[in-house]
Amino acid sequence: MDTIENTLINQFRSPAFPGSFFISFEGIEGAGKSSQIVKIKEYLEEKNFNVIVLREPGGTSFGEKLRQAILNSEKDIHPVAEAHLFCSARAQLLTSVVLKELAEPNTVIICDRFIDSTLAYQGVARDLGVDNILKMHSIFPLNLVPHVTFYLRIDLETSLERQRMRNLPKDYFESRDNSFHTKLIEGYDLASDLFKDRIKTIDGSKTTDEVYLKLKSEIDQLLFEK
Ligand SMILES: Nc1ncnc2c1ncn2[C@@H]1O[C@H](COP(=O)(O)OP(=O)(O)OP(=O)(O)O)[C@@H](O)[C@H]1O
Ligand SMILES: [Mg+2]
């Protein structure tokens, strides 16, 4: 890794609030993020954590408006505009929700997508370059990252099959072609190489129960074995 990229990686840190944790889930459409988040929330609530689930873009009224602006757009948005919209929603989410809630001990924030989605979608699939996305995150609060990120990795065929079964109307990104989705997988793989300590890659093609057990054991290590 060259020095510039190293410097860009080293600018990131996780919010430090004793007893509270920030977790994100990543992966392409149909990877199982939303399904697993429901189960992990239940598990952590049984362990007496206050669990707050957020989604990106969104999670604040400002962020939800930006979400609609992007995901319902019928026209192509320039990738630079896209990247800045996601960063705007993220900055607002971090300061108005994440940092405030984490200050309360025993809180777990679970975010359905975060910075790695921007690295994969805008950095790689939309060709802006990972370095440019990292640079956009060099100012507080965007330099804050989760303590752990679970990347549920599935291949394109699994994603398409699950989308077919789900049979929902396709949004702005879902309606793009297969080469876009192949680049997304490359982007996520690249992000997990850059952030080796933070991102745990989990085989999302396994059964829901198998994925859940793997996640639970990773979460136990993070929350209870330190
Ligand atoms: N491990 C699994 N095996 C088989 N089917 C699964 C598995 N995980 C999730 N599914 C199914 O695949 C579909 C997509 O799952 P889910 O909505 O959790 O994915 P997602 O990552 O949140 O997708 P999106 O990015 O589109 O929100 C759902 O119908 C879900 O029931
Ligand atoms: Mg989902």
What do you see in this structure?
The chain is of the alpha/beta class. 53% of the residues lie in helices and 13% in strands. The protein has 9 helices and 5 strands. It has helices at residues 3-10, 33-46, 61-71, 79-102, 115-125, 130-136, 156-166, 178-194, 208-224; strands spanning 21-26, 50-55, 107-112, 148-153, 199-203. It is globular, with a radius of gyration of 17 Å. Magnesium ion is lined by residues 33-34, 112.
Major beta sheet, strand line-up: 2-3-1-4-5
Number of strands: 5
Assess the beta-strand content as a share of residues: 5-15%
Number of domains: 1
Structural class: alpha/beta
**Chain-averaged pLDDT:** 94
DSSP helix fraction: 40-55%
Largest sheet: 5 strands, parallel
Shape: globular
In CATH terms, what is the fold-level topology?
Answer: Rossmann fold
Give the distance, in angstroms, between the N- and C-terminal Cα atoms. Answer: 30 Å
Q: CATH superfamily, called what?
A: P-loop containing nucleotide triphosphate hydrolases
CATH architecture: 3-Layer(aba) Sandwich
Number of helices, where a helix is a run of at least 4 consecutive DSSP H or I residues: 9
CATH hierarchy, class: Alpha Beta
Low-confidence stretches: none
Bound molecules: adenosine-5'-triphosphate, magnesium ion
Query: Over the alpha carbons, how many angstroms does the gyration radius reach?
Result: 17 Å
The SSE string, one letter per element, is HEHEHHEHHEHHEH
